[in-house]
Design brief:
The chain has helices at residues 13-27, 53-61, 77-80, 89-98, 129-151; strands at 2-7, 36-41, 83-86, 106-109. By secondary structure, the chain is α/β, with parallel strands linked by helices. The longest helix has 23 residues, at 129-151. The chain is globular, with a radius of gyration of 14 Å. The two termini are 14 Å apart.
Length: 153
């Protein structure tokens, strides 16, 4: 299986989701079920940049490292990934609009793997560190839900 996590700029939520999901899959013994785990943004504002320092700090505080560099979603992503998981409905709509007809990826809201369907991972960029900590807790819950529903963990 391959999974791509997507937010707007690929410096806050999606790189956090990529790293936290990879960690959760490893901790659960399901890392071998995945051929690729990556993240990107629907916009190209930060291409080549490292994740926001608050994302890196939140991950580090939870024993997780990241060496991700931001990138923008491409047409080929829709055929190279099995799942493309958006952090919010605005990015979900952008992804569905960009998806080439007949592409293989299941484009979904990541929050649909949580306890409440339709839950969004809010953009923490303009707030303080508490938003990043909230995002992390959501992402861990959604990651466990994904593993349960898709991999059977």
């Amino acid at each position: 299986l391959s999974v791509l996590f997507v937010c707007l700029g690929n410096i806050c939520r999606s790189p956090m989701a990529e790293a936290a999901f990879r960690h959760t899959a490893q901790e659960s013994g399901y890392a071998g079920s995945f051929t690729r785990i990556d993240s990107c943004g629907t916009a190209g504002y930060h291409v080549g940049s490292r994740p926001d320092s608050r994302t890196v700090a939140t991950l580090k505080n939870n024993g997780i490292d990241t060496d991700h560099r931001a990138r923008q979603v491409t047409r080929t992503d829709f055929d190279e990934f099995d799942y493309i998981l958006a952090m919010d409905t605005a990015n979900l709509h952008d992804l569905r609009r960009k998806a080439p007809p007949g592409s293989k990826a299941k484009v979904m809201l990541f929050g649909d793997f949580g306890k409440t369907k339709g839950e969004e991972v809010a953009d923490p960029y303009y707030g303080g560190t508490s938003g990043f900590e909230t995002n992390f807790k959501q992402i861990i819950g959604f990651s466990k839900g994904f593993l349960r529903q898709v991999v059977g963990a």
